[in-house]
Amino acid sequence: MALTKTQKVDKIEIVGDYKHVQVRTATVIEEDGVELSRSFHRHVVSPLDDTSGETAEVQAICASVHTQDVKDAYQAHLDAQEV
Amino acid sequence: MSEILVNTIKKADGTGGLTVPATTGTVLTTAGGVLTGDLTLENNGLYLGGTGAANKLEDYEEGTWTPTAGGTATYTHQVGHYTKVGRIVHTYFDIGISSIGTGGTINFSGLPFFHESGFASYGSIGYFNALATSAASYWPYIAASGTSIYLNAQTSVSAGVEQNVTFLQNSARIQGTIVYITSA
Hints:
- The complex is a heterodimer.
- By secondary structure, chain A is of the alpha+beta class.
- Chain A has two helices and three strands.
- In chain B, strand 3 and strand 4 form a beta hairpin.
- Chains A and B meet through strand 2, strand 3 and helix 2 of A and strand 5 of B.
């Protein structure tokens, strides 16, 4: 009987006007290759976030969709909400 | 009441599994189907009370997230849970700061889904201790298109609400909930 625990990014979504990148990480517990449980952990990468801690795949997606125009637009959106 | 017990259903020639015609009606098929007049299943969603876009329940998910102040902040507590039903996200957070370091003091991030544009959402605080701004009441909120939780405060009963107050510092802890809307 071998129990294994693996974590992998299993869903990446690009959503909203400012191309937020939603990342879901699945933790899978298996016994002899048979899945016993699967749980999810999520976070969002906004256009202004530091992506250095993300996976290479997420970094590549962020680099592609978080253009300077998107970053500028999101910064302007945030500035407009400040009181 | 009748009961049918079987172990295996096969085609007439003894091969493969049973194939059910992909038609709507009262039969549930691999392509979905109408179970009653108010419930429709498709292979990419569930419709309740009608079949318009506003009746579609396309997602349900439970999980965790990690509230974080960023920078060099260290923590005593970093707990986040979410349940997403359709576009509605129910979140619980518990963030306790050991040392704030270079972390942010007016918000924390890590939310599981971004907030829809056009409006903000407000929640409630269940517990707080050692926050940087003393107040009579606090309200957490997520701005439109936001991914962070900020705090509004009323420093006295007669005072107006102050937005985006400083609240995270060494030893601060805050627990609460927010329900907000994300994209589908």
